[in-house]
Amino acid sequence: MDYQPVLDRIHAALQPVIGQGKVASYIPELANVAADQFGMAVVDVAGNVYAVGDAGKRFSIQSISKLFALTLAFQREGDSLWTRVGREPSGNPFNSLVQLERENGIPRNPFINAGALVITDMLASRSVNAAQSLVDFVRKLAGVADITYNTRVAQSEISTSSRNAAMAHFMKSFGNLHNKVGEVLHAYCHHCAIEMSCVELARAVGFLANHGVNPWNGETVVDPSSAKRLSALMLTCGTYDAAGDFAYRVGLPAKSGVGGGIVAILPGECGICVWSPALEESGNSHAGSLALEMFTSLTRRSIF
Ligand code: GLN
Fold first, then answer.
1. CATH: 1.10.10.10, 3.30.450.20, 3.40.50.720, 3.40.710.10. Which one for 63-191?
2. Residue among 22, 26, 27, 237 whose CB has most ligand 1 atoms within 8 A, to mutate
3. Is-catalytic flag, 63?
């Protein structure tokens, strides 16, 4: 299918909404990003690229990194991973601490901060440099060699990460964090500070659209059943506590980040990424959510 006319239509229709909402400012470096930007890309499993607006501009992927970190950890740990993190929606904000005490330091899912800290801890146990190992993994997934993290953004988050540090210490008290809190936070903040464009992100999730096989090099990233499971988690937990509303409106597995990016997958067809930095209350990109909703309405393609 030729997605270009669809993307052009979405871009034109959303002009009045682009910039509405709030750019994340609790990480000081992110507050400097101009709100009025918008890009969207679709890359189908044959490698055709459709793009509009700022689709080639790199931005901070933030929580989208949680999808790649989970994939890498899942590759290494398999199902034993689920003894340390759950797979249910949390119904709470992504940085909430409230469930951790009642649930003995086991986070609800890998896509909230507490869950991603546990996943990062697993990666740290198996690699000398957990930050770089995720960068290397993402470079391979996207087939782009110069993807890297922004050190300023990482430092900016590390110096303001009291809340994530509190979660990490708390989980350590339950024995659910094996490495030093400082080391885990360092890797986690560098993962979040990776910068990629919409085109690169739409390519990087190609393996999920392609049932676990990286379409750009033919390598199996995960088996088809794992690709299904990762996508199911995206649908139920990938857009914070707005995941129910997102599934209702959009109908695609997706993962968002407070940098304003959202990746989504149309299984068997394509990877999609939209970016617009101004966020809704839930932390999802406002224009981005609307763009994906329009995408599934106009194409009549979703998982339902
Ligand atoms: N780095 C951010 C944080 O830990 C990521 C959050 C997000 O994108 N939802 O708060």
1. 3.40.710.10
2. 27
3. yes
The separation between the first and the last C-alpha atoms of the chain, rounded to the nearest angstrom, is: 18
Q: Are 7 and 44 in contact (CB under 8 A)?
A: no
Q: Is 172 a catalytic residue?
A: no
Examine the residue annotation and report whether 188 is marked as an active-site residue of this protein: yes
Q: Which two tokens stand for residue 186?
A: 């360092």
**Which residue of the set 3, 50, 149, 240 is catalytic?**
240
This prediction has a pTM of 0.97
Q: Ligand 1: does its nearest atom lie under 6 Å from the Cβ of 63?
A: yes
**Measured from the CA of 164, which atom of ligand 1 is nearest?**
4
**Quick check: CB of 214 below 6 Å from ligand 1?**
no
Q: Is 40:52 a contact under the CB 8 Å cutoff?
A: yes
* Residue intervals in the chain for CATH 3.40.710.10: 4-61+194-299, 63-191
Per-residue model confidence as pLDDT tens digits over 64-82:
999 999 999 999 999 999 9
Are 235 and 243 spatial neighbours (Cβ–Cβ below 8 Å)?
A: yes
